[in-house]
Amino acid sequence: MSELRRGLRVTGPRDDTPGRQDAVLKPPRHPRSHPGNQAAPCIPLPRAIEADAALAERVAALLASGRPLWREGAIRVPRMPLAAPVEAVLRQAQRAGELVRGLEGAEQALAAEEKGLREAARAGGAPQRARVSRLLLLSDDGAERFYRRAETLLRRHAPRLVAVRLATDAATLGALLFGAGRPARALLLERKEAVAAALRALAESDPAR
Question: Fewer CB atoms near the end CB (10 Å): N or C, the chain?
């Protein structure tokens, strides 16, 4: 067993239940292939994105870029401008009721969805291949604690959830969608069509293109 463990490390899915650690032995991996890392190439994108091979390539490159949300973060998140096409998608999502404001609201919405998925699995529903279906947008002026909390959310709900950090502050982002005096440091897009539209707009606004 000591020989087997040599060169291996104990890893496992994060479980916040007190006293529970379902660890398994896995070969060491490069940090970029972390299961919650947006750079992982095996994460299926929304079907509307995959239908366009060139667009899918640009979106995959976008999600694989970026830097950690905080100094000791492990998940790379791209930082993008709040360009006009992105603003248009967000306004449409807000009018359609497909946008959740705030990190706490995002946590609650994702937890409810996770519960629904578990119940469907217990009921014997046909298993579906996990793919990107939710997008978390973060303002650029949060404290370290905020970004650590956002990373925890990304880990818990990977690979369905990915994130993009917008080069704007919470006041500007909130005023755009909810009116002056209503800051928005985090926004969750919770419909597949809105997520696909936002990813398209972000990829087409990428300064690196």
Answer: N
